[in-house]
Specification:
This protein is α/β, with parallel strands linked by helices. The chain has one domain: Alpha-Beta Barrel (TIM Barrel), CATH 3.20.20. It is built from 5 helices and 4 strands. It has a 4-stranded parallel sheet. Helix 1 packs across helix 2. The relative contact order is 0.16.
């Protein structure tokens, strides 16, 4: 539960919670609930993401998302089509939107 994650972060002295292992936007509501609680306790939130997310999802999480490590695999659309089954442009759009929203990116 989100409360348990925040409590564990507090008890261990962690200053951040990173949402990784699976794409964090898959469980956006869970990350959002956890992120809100974490921010109330002064804990920062970080997504490790593939960058495939909607602008609406970014708008919703932005007030509680401090940073994102976006796995930009290539600057070639052909690579994304062949290896990811997607397109490069949505990832670039997410990166731009994160910057506009004040989310630090790496």
């Amino acid at each position: 539960m989100p409360e348990e994650i925040v409590e564990r972060a507090l008890s261990s002295g962690s200053k951040t919670i990173a949402y990784t292992y699976t794409e964090p936007t898959i469980f956006l509501e869970y990350a959002l609930d956890t992120g809100k609680m974490a921010h109330k306790e002064g804990i920062k939130n970080i997504f490790v993401t593939n960058g495939f997310m909607t602008g609406e999802a970014l708008e919703e999480i932005a007030p509680w998302l401090d940073a994102a490590n976006v796995d930009l695999k290539s600057f070639r659309d052909g690579f994304y089509k062949k290896h990811c089954g997607g397109k490069l442009q949505p990832v670039l759009d997410s990166l731009r939107r994160m910057k506009d929203l004040g989310i630090w990116t790496a």
